[in-house]
Design a protein that fits this description.
Layout: H1 27-41, H2 48-63, H3 67-79, H4 84-94, H5 99-107, H6 114-124, H7 131-140, H8 144-166, H9 171-178, H10 200-218, H11 220-229, H12 237-244, H13 250-256, H14 262-267, H15 280-295, H16 304-318, H17 323-335, H18 345-348, H19 356-362, H20 365-373, H21 380-387, H22 409-424, H23 435-444, H24 452-464, H25 473-478
Helix pairs in contact: 1-15, 1-20, 2-3, 2-10, 3-9, 3-10, 4-5, 4-8, 5-6, 6-7, 8-9, 9-10, 10-11, 16-17, 16-22, 16-24, 17-21, 17-22, 20-21, 22-23, 22-24
Amino acid sequence: MPNTPVAPPPPTAPAAPSVAAPAGARLAEVLAALSYALDLADGQSPGATLRSCVVGLRLADELGLPPATRSALYYALLLKDAGSSGSAAGLAALRRADGRLAAPRLSARRPGHSLRTALRLARDAAVGGSWLARVRRLLRLAPAPMVARQVARTIRAERGAEIARRLGLPAETAEAIRWLDEHWGGRGHADGLRGEAIPLLSRIALLARTVERLHTGHGVDAALAVAGARRGRWFDPRLVDRVLAWRGDPAWWALLREPELLATVVAVEPHAAAVPPADEERLAIVAHAFADIVDARSPYTLRHSANVAVLARGAAGLLGLGEAEAHRLYLAGLLHDLGKLGVPTRILDKPERLTEAERAVVERHPLHTWAVLSRARAFADIARPAALHHERLDGSGYPWGVPGEELDVLTRLLVVSDVYEALTADRPYRRGMTPHAAVALLHRDRGTKLCPQAIDALVAFAEESDGWYVTHPVAMRAA
């Protein structure tokens, strides 16, 4: 099922400013809502993470896991794919393919299956190119199985675990994500662990993910058939036996087909003292973590979201906005490109001009940003400016064509900050501009597409910041 959420038009009035988490906000609620972004990154249908969480928690209940362990599993299930964006980018760099499709195929590779791996590489290499181009690409990828194992170990597993640690989650949560792709028979990723040496929570999460994907795509019988066929090879036999016993529970399988499980998953959060509260500081950490997930999707966007956030916040201060508004804008800057997790890496990193179809995919990413952030109560008041970062004063922006009178000051600052940061950064089709050249382009659209006051505040902040902002060394040297 394609990831094409249809977002409603953004509201005409800006949301009320807030600098603190809403009363009663919980980390589970925040991460469950943001999990829709991870579904985009991993190429899954909306709600896949929540459905796998339901599967994993049923196993936890049947095993009688203590509350603290159950809580660690809960957060591992919500964040299990947090490292996928970096993995997708790494694999796409090895072969010109959609990283979302490439990752699952290479992650399933087993030693000794060279022919099967070669066939999969042949099928995936240089998607859309001629057969000659694909063969040439495949020949260059002869060592790709080894490289893929390294990518899976160092990027997906370790990055995902590190994000869990950054959020202050229990060590068991990070451990579960770290060894998620290990197989019971010892032929998985990332370290070749086998049997009981694999953490129990990793074993549960792997089975839950597989059952969810197969059930969503092919139904109950297919999910149970694959689980049974991989019993003792991929999956812990004891866990598989429990899942097979669910065949006679149609009401539970029907629950997995519910179109909206967010409230259900939040309601069953196992409370544990080790899980930090969703206070203002924690929300900023979450926003930073997801900004890094987004920016890791392409080597050309490293630090983009953080740069935009700092630029926008600094410009807001010089424009006279208060701390609450500046902080709200900072969070919006961190999360404005969340929807780009739904754009294939072969499009993001394409060095040639995009086709009309590819451009249409790119121009949908603010829809995804809106769809994800509007689900998260803690980030609902930044969803609108974050989603409108490609709109323009004259209504020529995308995807909604919102006119200037409906773009509030926060949105206008975010728009200008995003344009400036993108111009000064390297892209696959060009080198980054010097700051002076980028500012000249901003002034070209002054008053027509871009807000004059926002431009002046951005330029003043850049000049105040030791000569134009320091995260693009190429641009700095050229200046």
